[in-house]
Specification:
It is a single chain. This protein is mainly alpha-helical and 174 residues long. 44% of the residues lie in helices and 11% in strands. The chain is built from six helices and three strands; from the N terminus they run αβββααααα. It has a three-stranded mixed β-sheet with strand order 1-3-2, with helices on one face. Strand 2 (39-46) and strand 3 (52-58) form a beta hairpin. It is globular and about 45 Å long.
């Protein structure tokens, strides 16, 4: 059976090859046991070679599913591409492009942002969580509770094709 470290390394290696914005580097630490969440993207740091790298925490008391690692990696992708997955902004260019690729309708991203900020701000409604769940679904067919139907989308083949093109197109913003 794989360890958490091996699972993270395997998912990272696959995604690093397939998606140009996934960095060559990352660091992670154990999350406190049995807390929620059981995996968290924390921030970007600069390593000794000057690369921007994601820092995560993962619960090590059970084997994290591959899709959860991909979901957390997507938050880093969002940040590396020039967005801010923690402090949502109405003018986040990555979210606007994602919203279009995902085919969410009838509202463009800024209106969805307004709805989210005016509402109860539930985790499953957070646009940045949909960004990460879409990546997890695209790469490992797993997702949390962010169903695309919430924002008028689906996981149909046409959407997945657009999402693949979108995530593949992302490059690190320098």
């Amino acid at each position: 059976m794989a360890t958490t470290a091996e699972r993270i390394a395997a998912v990272h290696a696959r995604l690093n090859v397939e998606y140009p914005v996934v960095p060559d580097c990352y660091r992670w630490d154990p999350d406190p046991p049995n807390d929620y969440p059981f995996a968290t993207w924390r921030y970007l740091y600069t390593d000794e070679q000057g690369r921007r790298c994601p820092y995560f925490t993962f619960d090590v008391h059970w084997l994290i599913p591959e899709w959860v690692v991909a979901h957390e990696m997507a938050h880093a992708v969002h940040a590396l591409a020039g967005g801010d997955p923690i402090n949502l902004k109405r003018d986040d260019p990555i979210m606007a492009a994602y919203w279009q690729a995902a085919g969410f309708s009838p509202s463009p991203y800024p209106l969805a942002y307004d709805q989210y900020m005016a509402g109860p701000r539930l985790h499953k409604l957070a646009p940045s969580e949909h960004f990460a769940d879409a990546f997890a679904y695209l790469t490992y067919r797993g997702f949390g509770d962010c169903l695309p139907q919430i924002w008028g989308g689906s996981w149909d083949d046409a959407t997945l094709s657009r999402l693949q093109a979108f995530y593949t197109s992302l490059r690190e913003e320098v």
